[in-house]
Structures are given as C-alpha cells and as structure tokens.
Design a protein that fits this description.
Layout: H1 10-31, H2 42-45, E1 53-54, H3 55-62, H4 66-79, E2 82-87, E3 90-98, H5 100-124, H6 126-148
Antiparallel strand pairs: 1-3, 2-3
Helix pairs in contact: 1-5, 3-4, 5-6
Length: about 150
C-alpha cells in the first residue's frame, strides 16, 4: 500500500477527532457567550459537579497532574467560572465549585457535544455509531489500564 494512502494510526485518528471536536465545541461556546474558555479548561470544567469537587479528584478524573489542574483552576477563578470554597467534610481542604457562569458553560458544552454525537449517529446509523462508541470506550479503558498497571 502506498505510504500516502495508508490509514492513519490510532493516535493520529484520535488526535484528529479531538482537534475537530474541540474546534467546533469552542467556536460554538464562544458564539453562546463563553469566548474566554479554551480547550485546556475542559480538564476542570468537564469533571465539575454542581456541589463542587476537590482539585485532587479533578486531577484523578482528568488524568492531569494536580499542579496543572491548580493552574487551570486559577485561570477559571479569574474568568469567573469557578470559585474555591472550604470542603464541608474537611475545612482544611478546598472544593472547586462552579459559578452560575460555570454551570451555564457546562450545560451548553454538554448540549453542543450531544448535538455533535447525534449528527454522527444520523450519518453513520445508530447501530454503527453505538458500536463505534463502544469500541472506542473499550480501547480507551484498555489503554488507561496499561498506563496504571
């Protein structure tokens, strides 16, 4: 097979998909009132809970080092998307809590992503799309297990 016609490897395909999804997502978020949010902010925003979550938990959920999460939280505090509050279970610890602006961004991002998925489901057909997503989840799970095992 000609090198120019080779199917891209899994890393290339995953990267292309991620970049294309992020480009559409963040363009649409900007149009809907969130022009300052950047892809790296998803490390925190995608894993927030309305009642808040500790930064260590955000680090574990996102797979990012806690110092990176801390820097992103600082940015999001400055932008008005989250605030730090004492953790009711441990007053020495802090919870990262979404503001109204943060809750709005999370809701809009989830709706945009749901719409993108629905578009692909219509294009591929429900059965093929569900099989693709199941396979992608399995690959991601297996890859993460290798990293931690």
């Amino acid at each position: 097979m000609d090198a120019e016609r080779e199917v891209p490897d899994l890393g290339m395909l995953a990267g292309q998909l991620m970049r294309a999804l992020q480009e559409e997502l963040f363009q649409r978020l900007a149009e809907q009132g969130h022009p300052d949010v950047r892809p790296r902010h998803g490390t925190v925003l995608a894993f927030l809970e309305p009642a808040g979550v500790r930064a260590t938990e955000l680090s574990a959920r996102s797979g990012q080092h806690k110092q990176i999460v801390g820097t992103i939280v600082d940015e999001l505090v400055a932008l008005g998307y989250v605030r730090r509050e004492p953790d009711p279970a441990d007053r020495r610890a802090k919870r990262i809590v979404p503001t109204e602006q943060g809750l709005d961004e999370v809701a809009k991002a989830r709706a945009i992503l749901a719409g993108i998925e629905e578009r692909h489901r219509r294009t591929m057909g429900e059965e093929r799309f569900d099989a693709f997503k199941d396979a992608l989840q399995e690959i991601a799970r297996d890859q993460r297990a290798r990293e931690t095992g």
